[in-house]
Design brief:
There is one protein chain. The protein has 208 residues and is an all-alpha fold. The chain has twelve helices and no strands. Helix 1 packs across helix 3, helix 5 runs parallel beside helix 7 and helix 6 packs antiparallel against helix 7. It is elongated. The N and C termini lie far apart (43 Å).
């Protein structure tokens, strides 16, 4: 993995990235394998430039990348630069599809996920633009709408919402009761997070 990471680390500018892509033009699968082996060992694709070039040729590589990332988080509960890659995913035209895949792979693997996965996908910082913040909110609204007839799916979605949001949670509960007026459904939806903290996020996990 270290050899792979050191090799890919050379792609620090556009011309070198193009050279790497051309070098593996006849064997893109090998380059993808090298990329996946290098994840977690060094910062070699800080802004995701190579990743998104690979995805342009092979859109399914995002699924492979997020699956590999999920396995690494299970082992170390830690990520480094990958949050910048997810910021780029949120900025993409097909962000809904990318975030759907990422959430399935990172959050759907195990019922007892770690804070790291949610923070990686949904955390905002002072640098997060208003448009990206709105996209994140709209993604949750979309998930509520899609899951409106499934109590279990709604419980999962709102377990995420209680972790991600503090002051804006009311909007999501209002959307729920507007779309599903069954009081028995609402009673089963979590109102607070059972987690204690979200290190590094600007939003606490639970009201004090």
């Amino acid at each position: 993995p270290h050899v792979a990471a050191n090799f890919l680390e050379r792609g620090r500018n556009e011309s070198l990235l193009i050279n790497i892509m051309e070098l593996f033009d006849d064997n893109l699968a090998l380059l993808e394998k090298i990329y996946l082996n290098a994840i977690g060992y060094t910062i070699f694709d800080y802004e995701g430039d190579l990743l998104f070039k690979l995805m342009k040729v092979d859109p399914s590589f995002w699924d492979s990348f997020t699956n590999e990332l999920a396995q690494l988080i299970e082992k170390s509960h830690h990520v480094s630069y990958e949050s910048r890659i997810f910021n780029r995913a949120w900025s993409s035209e097909n962000y809904i599809n990318l975030i759907d895949i990422a959430s399935d792979n990172l959050l759907g693997r195990n019922k007892y996920f770690y804070n790291t996965e949610l923070e990686l996908i949904f955390a905002n910082t002072q640098e997060t633009s208003d448009s990206i913040r709105e996209r994140k909110r709209n993604w949750f609204f979309k998930k509520i709408e899609e899951s409106i007839d499934s109590v279990e799916e709604l419980k999962t979605i709102f377990s995420y919402i209680t972790l991600v949001y503090k002051n804006e949670r009311l909007d999501f509960y209002l959307r729920l009761v507007n779309d599903n007026k069954d009081i028995d459904v609402f009673k089963q939806i979590p109102l607070f997070s059972s987690f204690q903290s979200w290190s590094g996020s600007e939003i606490p996990l639970i009201d004090r």
